[in-house]
Structure formats: structure tokens, C-alpha cells
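Repro:
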Amino acid sequence: MENSDIKKLFNYDITNEKSIIERAKLLKGKSLNEILVSSPLSKQIINTANKGRVGNLIEKHWFGIDNNNLSEPDFKEVGIELKVSPIKEMKSNILAVKERTKICRINYQTLVNEEWSESHAKSKLNKILFIFYKHDFNKDNWETQEILNFRLWSLSSDELIISSEWFKTKDQVISGFAHTLSERNYQVLAPCTSGTGKNIAQPNTCNQALAKERSFALKQPFINFLWDTLNDSNVYESIKDNLDLSSNDNLELQVLSMINNFSGKTINDIAKLTNAPILSSKNAVRSVIMKLLGFKNESSKIKEFSQLGIQIKVIPIDTKNKTLFESISFPAIKFKDFAHESWKDSGLSLDLNKILFIPVSRNKLLNRDIKERVLEKAFFWNPSITQEKLIKKEWLTYQNIVKQGVKIDKKPQNSKKGYVEVTSLPKESSTEIIHMRTHARDSDDRDVDQFGTSIVKHSFWLNKKFVNKLIKNSLNS
């Protein structure tokens, strides 16, 4: 469609950035059905099985852009790419980005001769207009999904890390090892499997090894940071700024160095040295650690950790034997959503992306006061390839049971209700790394599965025995 036709039919100038943004503003609050109804183009039957259906609908019926696979940005005159990102509802009505954002297909043959400044990926990344919509797993509600917000993002703010990861991929392809590329080795711009996942030829390989089809994609934590800061830009502080780190400093090593310099000291001693208040909440220890890392507000989120998908877990351990008191939990799942998740975009997969474990020891018998608890050696962990395969296998076991319907038995018990609910979900003793069990205020804090069965809220947990091995390995390293 010509620019003049778009201006006439859609009442905006596709060659003007300000006009494009004004058009995007009008999207907020509209459902997909409202977009279709208001479109000046002829209506079409939407294939709800097509993964890119929402993006295609918004491109064509709101901005007048024909769906295509061209190398230039969607708004080529102003260098803006259009990306549509689904937002899902998490625990406590928190909204988060559902999945990574594909940028462009990787052509192994041409990538080896590209320069970053003129690369296909950079042309698509220079400026991106993100449209965020509320995702609904129920296909019957497809047209009621609503546009929540939008954001124009510029590559310049994050170009250093993104370009370095582009070069990392290029170097691996040049060396003839495109078949060994792995998304897990990247922080922001990852070479993700895409298309049919078929194997294709790659250049410079001596053994004729084929490589999987891949695309450059911005990982979910990075996109989620862009979404999250739309709503409250004041909750983040930069750890690089607080520790006065340069872009070349190893962030993880610097963080561990700062924390472990205080290893062996009590929380009270650390609080005095850092002028940190000791709160009366369950986040008291974490708040002291945040002050230790130079944060002005102990409740702030760490910008870099959010962008890279790094979680902090302060874990209480026994002073005597340096073992956990209990397994480590993650946010409660929603049974209906869990039944439809894919592993790569699942809540647990994202939760396990990378974790900073900060062990704090106390005497088991004395239940030592927070002030007297001792900071132990902190460490980062993310699943190895072998561990991730096992975690995925165990995760699928639980998902298959949920898909079929969790069975609940009420066994008599001397309690207020007179019974205890026992589910058909495997116990911690039946798994090696993860298990699922209740994670609720009480037995009245419940969820409903896709069959309408009421069940106490559950979450995934890292097995105590497994984490104890991690702690032992860290303390002995």
C-alpha cells in the first residue's frame, strides 16, 4: 500500500515519527475486535492457530502495513520496526511479558560478511515500537484481547551489550560452529531456534555439520524490563552506577566480591557498617544486602538484574551443617495457564534463568534473631544443559497431570475441617531438582483448573537436597 493511501485510509503519516506515535496512542484500551471493526480494509478470517496473528492484525488493520518479510524496518522512512508483545497475568494480578521478541532471521551465509553498522539485525533494532497486549490462553476469547500500552525503544541505550552479542554469534558462525549456538549462552540478543527448526547449511565448517534455523531475538527479561518501566520508572536503580562499574567490568564477579567481603559477619554488623536499618519485615536481610550494594532505596529493583533475568534468593541455612531449612519456592502458578504453557516461555523456565543465592545462617535450635544471623558465601547459579533437560522432563510430568486433571483425595484428619487434601501430584521425594506443592496463605487460598476443580494454590519449588549440593559446592570452592 502506498504512503498516500495509508494517510488517506488510516489518517496518519507513515513517514513521520510523531504521527506514528500519535496513531499508537489511539490503540490503548482497544480490543482486537474493535481494531478489526474500525479498519478501513476488508475484513478477513483470522487464523487463530497462527502464532503471529495479533502482530499481523495490528500491522495491517491499524497501521496499514502489508504483512511481509522484508529486510527493512516496517516504517522504513523513519527506521522504526513494529513489534507486538503479549502480556500475561501472573500471581497477585502482576502483569509480565509472556515471551521473547523475534527480530529477524539469521542468514548464516550473509552474516559472516556483515558489519554491525550495516547489518540486517541493526536495521531492525535501531528503533522499535512495542505494542503490548493482554494475552488470553482461551482461544474463544481471542478477539477480546486488549491493547494495554506501547513504547518506542531506541537501540542507543543498550547498544554495547546487544552489539557484543551480535558479534559473538557472528564469530561462532565464521568459525564454522553455527550448529553449537545456544540461546542459554546469551543475555539479551540471543540466536533462538525459529521457523520449522530444520537443519540448514552453514559456511566454513570442515565436517559439513548442519545448523538449526535461528533468528536473533530479544530475550523475555529484557522486554519485560521495558514493559515494567512503562508503569513505574522510579523503582529501579543501576548497580553499575552504584558500584561505579565500567561496561567492561564483569558484573557478576563484582557483585559477588562486594557481598562476600562481608561473609562471616552478622547482619547487625553489616547494618552498622552500611548505615542500613534492620526492618521488621520478612525482607529484612535482603534490604541490608541492597544497602551493602550501594542502593539508596532497599526496596528498589536492580536494573541490570531485571534486564538479564537474574533473581535474588536469600536462603536461610543451618549454622551447624550449612543446609537449607526448607525447599525454595517460586511464585504460585495459575493452573489454567500452566496447562497451556510451552517450556521455553514458561514461568519456571524464566525463574530459573539465573539466580543469585545469598545464604544466611542461624542456629536451628535457638531460632536466632535476625540481627545475629550470619552472611555466608553468595553464589550465582543457572541450570547446566544436563540439569535443564531433567528440569524440563520433571516440569512436563507435572504439566501432563494438570492437563488430565489433578485428582484430590480428602483424608480424615483431626483439624478444623476434619480432613486434609492430598493430590495426585508427585512428591519432592519422587523428583531430583523440582517439585510442585501448595503455596498458599491457608487451605482457603485457592485456584481453579481448566475443569473447574477448586484446588489450593500451588507453585514450583527447588528441591532441598539439590540446593544443598549447590551450597556445599559453593562453600568448598
